[in-house]
Amino acid sequence: MLYKINADGTGYQVLHTFINDPPTGDGTSPRGSLTLSGSTLYGCCPYGGVPYIQVGGTVFKINTDGSGYQVLYSFGGGTDNQCHPYPAPVVAGSTLYGTTSEKTGANTLGEIFALSTAGVPAGEHPQVLHEFAGKPDDGEQPYGSMTLVGSRLYGMTSTGGSYGISGGGSGYGVIFSINTDGSDYRVLHHFQGNPNDGSHPYGALTLVGSKLYGMTSQGGTANGVIFSINLDGSGYQVVFNFPGSTGGPWGSLTLVGSKLYGMTSGGGPGGASGVIFRINPDGTCFEILHGFMSAAGDGGAPKGDLAVVGSRLYGWTYGGGANDSGVFFSCQIPQSNPGIMLLD
Length: 344
Hints:
four-stranded antiparallel beta sheet
């Protein structure tokens, strides 16, 4: 379902309930964030739509007051065999840009697509900007949103690429870029895996000055890495290796002032089930702001991104809480060192 809630935890309201069984044409099982443009929210469901319940997926929009819900496109119909659009689309003017993670049939690689914010006329399909060719020269299965810089889109795939494919491996993923008109697609980096590089990214890239920053869920010396790369693909650098006691981030970094904030899906001090952290862009001063203690009624296993409202961070966890179904939380952004730092 879609819902809204005030920053102080009051005013919880369900805006839309996804129902497609029996088939109604609606999407199901939304997994990603929403993109706000004006007073309209845009998002994706990896399943549901017309004509399939378990294969297709949808792109939708809804007003912030809950009115005007509309399915803009259902994947999997007619000659369109793309499916499973997981991440929130990028909005640029009257165009939405997004990705699918799979393709029905023999190939399960995904694509980059563009469609109008008004939807797609009956019998037509979104514009395909790129079909992922997969290992060894291209990526496959993107799960994070793309990042728009000027007229160019940047993103990552969770698998594919040149490394991690021996013995039938799926690959460690790539960083890519493409113009919004579909021209000049480039693979900027092939993730090489442990111990010198990360593998399997699931979030988006964050622009800091003229560099992009991101995280991988695995690889490095232990449980994933934070990296930076120039917009032209040069200067790739691992700036931080998550230690064995904390790691496995399934999300993106959020820039607040001069520091990057994020979450890991597991580990942390005192038997925590994930942490909120911050770090300087050069990889120094990694600090833990909060360790999720799901056994004590706190949330656990956070997956996704942090949002900033005033001086607080907001996010969600996948597990923990009173019903072990996750929690919505906020965390004060400290002005000084919170006193807990991982050094190894």
